[in-house]
Amino acid sequence: MYIGIDVGGTSTNAVLLDNGLVRDSVTVPSSADIITSLLEALDKIMTNVTAESIERVVLSTTLITNLIAEKKYTPVGLILIPGPGLSHEYYQFHTDTLIISGAIDYRGREIMPLNDDEIEKAINILSTKGYKKVAVVGKFSVRNNKHEQEIVSKVKCLQPDWHVEIGHQVAGQLNFPRRVVSTMLACATRDKYSFFVESVQAALTMRGIEGPVLILKADGGTMLLNKVTGVPIETIFSGPAASTLGVQALIPPGETAVVVDIGGTTTDLALILSGQPLLSSKGAPVYEQLTQVRALAVKSVAVGGDSLVERVGQEILVCPKRLGPPFCMGGPMPTPTDALRVLGLTGVGNAKQAVEAMEILGQPLGISHSEVAQRIINSVINVIVQEIENMFTQWEQEPAYRVWEVLQKRKERPNMVVGVGGGAAGFITQIAAKVGGSPVIPPYAPVANAIGAAVAIPTLQVNLRADTERGYYTIEQEGYQGKIEKTRFTEEDALLLADEWLKKRAEKYGLGNTVSNSEINHRDVFNMVRNWTTTGRIYDISVQTPRGIIGHIGAKDGFSNA
Q1: pLDDT of 27-85, one tens digit each?
Q2: Do 458 and 223 touch, CB atoms closer than 8 A?
Q3: Is 97 contained in some domain?
């Protein structure tokens, strides 16, 4: 049996899957303490189920998303080694940033050594300003991490109690500004993430659950819940990823659909093309800056069933914030859920209280409670529809979307609009009509995000760069540089080596038994020519474990192949 738990801003959902079927599902209110909500849902879903029967648990949480969005973390100082190139004045990361001389080139060669005096001065400046967390990032450290390691050694010598994150371990792919942001955020959230991991692991151990515990990443894959090997920011946007995978598991294989997950606090939008969630070609954005976190092409809209509704002059506005549950369920202010209750589009809450909420808004304007309710519903629908249109503009720029259009042999948009989440039933029909699609509300729609967590499979990637002229290769994700042992090193050898490292990474993250094959993302070969003679080749190879799900819910023989 598999357990999936999604901790959202309003509700925490949990499901128990048994041989491809939903055996049970529960929903509990989310509290300020994520761990409390998670464990409450876990205990309810395990009623009458033995711990020994649980094969694995997969979590989706807003922990890191909330920490970053609300900036609830200790500031992080930056020590950067950008080398020659862009003027240093362009490196603006909204924190104290110290630039160190020294440079590694794009092939991993040291072209300028570090200056020890500069390093000590930078450490002293950060110490004087009270920093206890530091991110150290070199521009080409993924090709050679020598400079990052030297600075870390100096930091540990002078300030042994500081927490330090280094760029080549957090963000393996090139793009210096994104790697800086990713490393800084990993450093900022590591302590809270570690506490979360320790608390969950201790609680599961007390409950006798010995199967693997994983957490959902932004790209729709999972990683082992581990405070040492896990990268906290990989879990940002795991909520939208969970609902997307849930829809993938609940609709027939190979379908194309727009996903609209209407929760209490936000509405998450995503796209599934021919049965596969669309992956963003850019990293996940944070504070309008891109990171190196692989993520699905998703968008969270600040409107949901529990959004605050206020009267401002002659206008009735749906505000992008939540003060509590709907008025009809004992909350302090009117919400879209109250409007749905008045119009008979939902059965939750007290009908009289819902009418009262609408009258509070409508009486000063001289309009009926039903008209107020309809205005609110129309407002929510218009916001979501506009965001879907905006997302289509972005989705259509993604390489995977363009390939899909080529395969369709015509330019068209997906026709299916799938609504999930607690508020889907009241809104999705009108949303689909406005975007020209057919509405679908699958079974278990209210807990689709927990289903998505439960069916997610691990995703790992390895980028290998082999330089036969120099006789070395690097693994970007590990910051590893090794010697090429073979005299004649071919493209096939590079592919085999990349695949070997992918399996090593799987073992490192405790996923050795679940990663059996790989896919080639890209493969490039560059000849090195000196005096009209080819002196070597550079191979750029990227391999990954296939993205997907364990299978589709309700398949005849348990889980079908995704």
Answers
A1: 998 887 888 899 999 999 999 889 899 999 999 988 888 788 778 888 999 999 998 87
A2: yes
A3: yes
Range of the domain at 33: 2-70+192-242
- Buried b vs exposed e over 190-219: b needs ≥16 C-beta within 10 Å? bbbbeebbebbeeebeeeebebbbbbbbbb
| Contact between residue 448 and residue 260 where contact means Cβ atoms under 8 Å apart | no
Q: Which residues 6+ apart lie within 8 Å of 25 measured at CB? A: 13, 14, 15, 16, 45, 444, 446, 447, 450
Pair 129, 463: CB distance under 8 Å: no
| Domain co-membership, 100 together with 51 | no
pLDDT bin (cut points 50, 70, 90) of residue 159 is very high
Domain boundary among 208, 224, 242: 242
Residue 559 banded pLDDT, cuts 50, 70, 90:
low
How many separate domains does the chain show? Answer: 4
- Provide the CATH number for the domain around residue 6: 3.30.420.40
pLDDT at 263 over 80: yes
The whole-angstrom separation of Cα 327 and Cα 324 is: 9
Tokens found for residue 398: 């993604």
Judgement on whether residues 177 and 87 belong to the same structural domain of the protein: yes
394 touches 402 (CB < 8 A) = no
Which position has the higher pLDDT, 498 or 545?
498
pTM for the full model? 0.86
Determine how β-strand 289-290 pairs with β-strand 285-286. antiparallel
- What is the secondary structure of 128-173 as a DSSP string? HTT--EEEEEETTTTT--HHHHHHHHHHHHH-TT-EEEEHHHH--S
For residues 14 and 46, the answer to whether their CB atoms sit within 8 Å is: no
